[in-house]
Amino acid sequence: MKYAYCGKSGLQLPRISLGLWHNFGFINDYEIAKEMILHAFEMGVTHFDLANNYGPPPGSAESNFGKILRENLASHRDEMIISSKAGHLMWDGPYGDGASRKYLMASISQSLKRTGLEYFDIFYTHRYDPNTPIEETMQALVDIVRQGKALYIGISKYPPLQARHAMNYLKERDVPCLIFQDKYSMFNRKPEEEILDITAGYGSGFIAFSPLAQGVLTDKYLHGIPAHSRAAEPAGFLREDQVTDILVEKVKKLHILAGLRGQTMAGMALAWVLRDERVTSLIVGARNTRQLDDNLKALQNLTFTQEELEQIDDILDGATL
Ligand SMILES: NC(=O)c1ccc[n+]([C@@H]2O[C@H](COP(=O)([O-])OP(=O)(O)OC[C@H]3O[C@@H](n4cnc5c(N)ncnc54)[C@H](OP(=O)(O)O)[C@@H]3O)[C@@H](O)[C@H]2O)c1
């Protein structure tokens, strides 16, 4: 595994982290989930990314992760970076969604209980909430750190203006924003417009989520939609109609290029995300250890020639998902 310092902090993250959004809930096979976590850790993946609502049902990924940790990795807690978040709908009524102090404080207590952890390494506001003043959200995060419930703070999916505002607030209170989490892949290059510069400017790290565009940037959909895929399964967040012919044609061309680099499609897509030094890490998803191993091989070739980058730009031609 390769590790990188997270912005200007003293914390190193693995360049490839594992996310538990899909495939780790009560609806999934517990033994496969356990095998993936244990294998990932063995391979040097020290960072596991959770959120209160991951499952389904919501909360169950945290419960499963806590059980796996307790029963198999308890003596390794200090070798791991475990994150969680609150921001999307979690429970009924006005206090189970958004970014109010009430929601964040209640949610982190629940997440700690579900996982059985004493603290999270990183706790995030999962999304910008236009109905809550940024100061309220950020002060809640500062207090979460001061109360010892999290070691570091992160923010996710904030628009550039609000990200600056949030980072200023945190910096002035000596609880700098450790990390910014945003969607970034060949099919979503928005962070290149402003966010990567903002995070670097504040000394914050950056971690990319859905770096494979939920599986579309792999060889998975080259010949249609397989039954065991996120696009085909009802609990999957990817809809079948999002896997368009136009995108698949592009992936076919990228796939040839990946072969010339000695990589699989997934390997090249992940290496491409990591080519930028401002990107501390990426969070990949996986349904089994075979996918995970394929993804970890990305680290064997992270360098692109100028010609390769131009070819990739030409193929992508602004395509988004
Ligand atoms: N902050 C946020 O709002 C936010 C939002 C989304 C995600 N996240 C974080 O980012 C993590 C990753 O997101 P993601 O799961 O969308 O990431 P992703 O890596 O883009 O997609 C993962 C999916 O791609 C397929 N896949 C992975 N490796 C493959 C391989 N080698 N060959 C073929 N198919 C492969 C699998 O889907 P199949 O099931 O089809 O096999 C897998 O579940 C999440 O778990 C979560 O921690 C955060």
List keywords for this structure.
single chain; alpha/beta; 8-stranded parallel beta barrel; two-stranded antiparallel ribbon; 10 strands; globular; binds NADP nicotinamide-adenine-dinucleotide phosphate
CATH class: Alpha Beta
End-to-end span in angstroms?
A: 29 Å
Q: Give the CATH architecture.
A: Alpha-Beta Barrel
Structural class: alpha/beta
CATH superfamily: NADP-dependent oxidoreductase domain
Q: What about the largest sheet?
A: 8 strands, parallel, barrel
Oligomeric assembly = single chain
Mean pLDDT: 97
Number of strands: 10
Helix content: 25-40%
Helix segment tally:
10
**Widest sheet: strand order?**
3-4-5-6-7-8-9-10
**CATH topology title:** TIM Barrel
Hetero groups in this structure are: NADP nicotinamide-adenine-dinucleotide phosphate
